[in-house]
Model the fold of this input.
Amino acid sequence: MYIRDATYNDLPGVLDIERLSFAQPWSLASFRRELSLSFSRLILAVSDEGNDGGRIAGYLCRWLVAGESHILNIAAHPDFRRRGVGTALMAHAVAEAQTRKATLMILEVRRSNLEARSLYRKFGFEERRLRRNYYGPGEDALVMELLVD
Ligand SMILES: CC(C)(COP(=O)(O)OP(=O)(O)OC[C@H]1O[C@@H](n2cnc3c(N)ncnc32)[C@H](O)[C@@H]1OP(=O)(O)O)[C@@H](O)C(=O)NCCC(=O)NCCS
Done:
């Protein structure tokens, strides 16, 4: 697997994963907008294994604004889950934040999303704030942060 930046041609594949991953997926227009923003970056994890070679296994979108890296979206294709895709994407984002001298990484996650919370904790993110009913009745958001050194 390797990491590269997404282009417009990749968006159908990204959208497939988005729809398989979220009840309220981003639209094609949302992803197109991200590609047009100078402070936004959409990276892909691409498989280099046999028949899957060239397939998009996952993606991550971040904003780098005012010295902070905001993780807006991350997903792995269900076929590739639990195979290190999320880890590779997060490792790339953390390394980039260090290189770009960001001081903080920040993200929001559903409290019920134990898989994602576990992934973020592995990178040292800490749960800082709870936003009650942020995603609707009974769906709280957790704000997680990582101080970048
Ligand atoms: C969260 C997500 C991106 C993880 O991607 P992944 O490629 O499966 O993750 P990895 O294989 O790199 O696993 C890394 C860690 O994540 C956690 N994790 C991933 N899947 C898990 C599961 N089913 N149960 C518990 N922990 C899990 C574990 O801590 C795991 O480390 P471990 O394998 O050493 O236990 C993936 O589950 C996904 O796309 N979910 C749907 C979209 C989503 O919820 N995105 C996050 C929005 S905030």
Observations:
- The chain is about 30% helix and 35% strand.
